[in-house]
Write a structure and sequence with these properties.
With 182 residues, the protein is an alpha/beta fold. It has five helices and eight strands, in the order βββαβββαβααβα.
Length: 182
């Protein structure tokens, strides 16, 4: 399921359609919600980051627009907000500085600190207007796990610079985020 939220105060709407294939920057920001599902619904992995999102992000970056992909709940070796991976010209990627992926809210103090640093970094980068597109994976699950407050998430989404578009990827979009499109 894909929903697009045009968050310009004079023109708010939700549409459903193709992933990012028809993406184009607009003079005001847009928030698109893309639900991603496991290939096998019986699989214990609830969410798999959609390869189409990454492929389309590469296409967008190839037009000269700067794109940032942030996977909030994914960890990995030598990851973190201070270790941005440049996947291609104009395409950066960040994961949390964890040695594991987060699936339940059982983080120790260091892991929680690293997650909070990543969220703080995402909020800061968004305000600096360094990127044209931010692809944010698992925001709703981060809210569900209690790692990001719904107030913080909605404040972030409603105060974006006009030149930044956001794609929210993941499962089960939080009702308050969907409500922004109403």
């Amino acid at each position: 399921m894909i929903a697009q939220l045009n968050s310009h105060p004079d023109n708010t709407s939700v549409t459903r359609g193709a992933l990012l294939h028809n993406y184009s920057a607009t003079p005001h920001n847009q928030i698109r919600i893309v639900e991603t599902f496991a290939v096998d619904k019986a699989s214990p992995v609830e969410n798999r980051f959609c390869t189409e999102i990454v492929a389309d992000a590469l296409k967008i970056a190839s037009t000269g627009q700067r794109v940032l992909i942030v996977q909030l709940l994914k960890g990995g070796i030598r990851q973190g907000h201070d270790r941005v991976v440049n996947l291609a010209q104009n395409l950066d990627w960040i994961r949390c500085n964890l040695i594991r992926n987060i699936s339940i809210a059982d983080l120790n103090d260091l892991e929680l600190h690293n997650f909070q640093q990543l969220w703080k970094h995402v909020c800061s980068v968004a305000r600096m207007s360094e990127y044209s597109l931010l692809i944010l994976d698992d925001l709703s699950l981060s809210i569900e796990l209690g790692l990001i407050s719904i107030e913080s998430a909605t404040n972030f989404l409603t105060t974006l610079p006009e030149n930044l578009d956001v794609i929210l990827a993941g499962t089960n979009p939080h009702p308050a985020i969907l409500e922004l499109a109403a």
